[in-house]
Amino acid sequence: MEAVNAIGRRKAAVARVFVTPGSGIIVINKRALDNYFPSTILQYVVKQPLNKLGVAETYDIKVNLDGGGYKGQAEALRLAIARALVKINPEDKSALRKEGFVTRDPRSVERKKPGQPKARKRFQFSKR
To answer: What CATH number does the domain containing 56 carry?
Structure first.
């Protein structure tokens, strides 16, 4: 098997992954996973699709992460890994879908409108 690539997005974050057979090393922007995401919760989020299928020690993953905050980046990476695993073995798709790992979360920040302080907030109305 050669390298399989996939892309995942969440809010403003974009994750491009390259999955190759290996020993379970995850490198994000040339840094180790535990170095890039010090939070164990975010490390767990990233590894969820791998742990679900029991292939955490089977693949090496190289990641380019860009944009957004750390939570959005972790969830974008989770989606990208899930998509790559589905490319490798399409039979795994139903198991990943049941956990919600192959669904792109469409929620993002609403744009600010002109003449308003924020997206929905209005300036105080004065009758006179």
So the answer is: 3.30.230.10
Assess if residue 75 is contained within a domain.
yes
| Beta strand spans in the chain (E) | 4-10, 13-21, 26-28, 31-32, 59-66
Q: What is the pTM of this model?
A: 0.90
Distance CA 102, CA 58 (A): 20
Read off the tokens for 102.
């192959």
Token pair 């899930």 in the structure block, residue: 82
* Of 17, 108, 9, residue with least CA distance to 59: 17
- The answer, yes or no, to whether residue 32 has pLDDT greater than 80, is yes
**Looking at the domain assignment, is residue 57 inside a domain?**
yes
